[in-house]
Amino acid sequence: MTVNIEVINDKVLDLLSGMERLDLIRVNLPGKNSITQKEKLSERFAGALKYSDVDYEACQNSLQEGRNEWNRDIY
């Protein structure tokens, strides 16, 4: 059965996406096969940030420092 709906609030897309992951519904968006992308996020967003070399290094260092915080004892 096919039903057309009009999305009034974008928050409903999360709900529809969850229902699609549970194989309850199939969502067909114009120009897309479904809400959930089968493409890897690393491929999808590669090059999305336009950092200079200096900014890129600063960002990477900040990320590494944040990761190191998880391994440190806090007591």
Question: What's the arrangement of secondary structure elements?
Answer:
Elements (H helix, E strand, L loop, with lengths): L11 H10 L19 H4 L8 H18 L5
Number of helices: 3
Radius of gyration: 20 Å
Strand content: under 5%
Coarse morphology: elongated
SSE-based structural type? mainly alpha
> Biggest sheet: strands, sense, closure?
none
Low-pLDDT parts are none
Distance between the termini: 59 Å
- How do the SSEs run, as a string of H and E? HHH
Summed over residues and divided by their number, the pLDDT gives a mean of 82
Number of strands: 0
Give helix % range.
Answer: 40-55%
Detailed description of the structure:
This protein has 75 residues and is an all-alpha fold. It is built from three helices and no strands. The relative contact order is 0.07. The model has no long low-confidence stretch (mean pLDDT 82).
List the main descriptive attributes of the protein structure presented here.
single chain; 75 residues; mainly alpha; 3 helices; 0% strand
Summed up:
The protein has 75 residues and is mostly helical.
